[in-house]
Structure of Glycosyltransferase family 4 protein:
Amino acid sequence: MRPVYATRRHGYSYANEDFLDSPTQGEKNTVRPVEVQSGDIFLALDLAAHLLPRHQAQVLDWKRTGVRLHVLVYDLLPLQHPEWFPSRTERNFKRWMRWLAIYADNAICISASVKDELQNWLKVHYSLPPTALPASIIVLGADINASVPSGGLPNDAKDLLAHLRNTPFVLMVGTIEPRKGHDQALAAFEHLWKQSSSMPSLVLVGRGGWKTEALQDKLRRHPESGKRLFWPQNVSDEYLLHLYAACSGVLVASRAEGFGLPVIEAALHRKPVLARDLPVFREIGLPEITFFTGQDAKNLACAITSWLAKKHLASDAERPQKVDTWRTAAQQLLLALGFTADTSVNGVKSNTRTHKQGAAA
């Protein structure tokens, strides 16, 4: 199995063995194009909607040689809700979807919901039946420590963690972008804070994204910033684990998702979840999720109040929850690629070479 990558300037090339530690390696080192033979597999593991169509000639040469093309599909959201994304993202996704429809040998989806949406899109826009593009499903793991986690705490982290350990707070994890529902969540907490000084704090973890500049500015300037509203910067995986461990519960207000990893991560930390009632969250099937509906801030505030009052907030820490791990994800991915695997990831039996798209810029 060889990691490969591409950029806007050059096609798919071999990555260095230490590519996880040197993401800009291609800018400094000699670029060596991928060499293939019949029976190889190319796995587009990254979301690279802007790159696969760009290097179509190279990839189609591989296909003519006998390489099978497998592509991870995380969601179709830029096609379904273009108003939530920059216009170039929608354009890239349209080109990528056309590429998938014509050239891919297998789509590997991260949920049954994404698989259904993909097949429906291909039917509506290209008149393709579900059998035209074989599709499989894999889970995503939630065990952060098994995923080459980032480490380190910024200078102010210890003070914030010390404060939060003595203060009930609700955690939200995700990029500050339109679909994540931070606007509704903030309005709901503003309503709660006006009602009582005993209401919990809100902690947001996620970088500033697109089309939310006004909201980001409001978060920075908010009267409760640093008091009951916190948006820590430079949050490593190590830092995030501390926040999961200390929080009272996790709010997932996303208006749409391909999967919803914070739901699984919260369950792994035995934390209760309040989530918007989306089919994909129902699909995850964890027993301790409370669902809410609607876009109104006051209705969400009522849902938060009811959720916080539930006894399970005090008892869930003692109740184990079974969640999927990255080992499970790896096993399912290998099976989706056609490998024969035993009960361990290291027990894969195959003579097929795999070129895994591990970095794309």
